[in-house]
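Mods, move this if it's the wrong board.
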Amino acid sequence: MTRSNRRPLVVSAVAASAALAAGLLGACSAGQVAQTAGIEPGVAGVNGQAAGFAVYVRNAAVDYQEPKGYPKGAKAPVSFWVFNNTHEPVSLVSVTAAQNVDGHSAPVQVVLSGGASPSAGASSAPACSVPTSLAPATPPVATATSPAPSVTASAGSSGSTSAKSTPSVSASPSGSPSPSPSPSPSAAGSATIKVTIPAGGCLELSRRASQYVQAVDLPGPLGNADSLAVEFGFTTAGGQTFTIGQPMRLPVAPAESPLPRPTPSKGE
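Not the wrong board. Structure tokens:
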């Protein structure tokens, strides 16, 4: 073979090697993107939004208790944030919960309890604003000329909800509104729930804040892989009522710090 014939073969071999290397690098890069594209950030709780109102529940979860979860009859604190992006105050007035026990939905009593920081309350600071991507294009202004009936939903065994209408307020003979009869109190807190979030403000409900809600007297064990079906009920300053969650499935939050390793027994 002459030198002139040998040169094209060398050039072809170099070109083929370069193409092969480029293909391998491209395959590795594609594989790396495919593995990381589906990774989602870990979030302890779940989020919900009211239909027709710029009001949001964020990061709602049952507080972590212990590796075995909550036993039957225990109290399970719930933590969440409420963001109010409307032009008037709104009040959280009810938290309805249910637990799956042996394949059946069992109602759970929820009470309002005092937290660790009595001075912490609702805030109207700019930090309370919900990101634009989460808010409607034109946040509605909740106004009403007459009180609207509230809707109370109960979770069934299949997760569906049934609704019934009950008046949100009743009028006294003098014409001024009077509150409906309060449910029976509980030793763990008040069965009457009412906390107000200012217009454009937010409120944290947790054990570290001024107030929080907790499910009491659980009808069955609540493991760390289980959830509570919860619906939040609200009223506006104008008398309108709405809910968030139909229902929302609140998971048990993960432990805030790594669990200690079990102590090995003798002989191991």
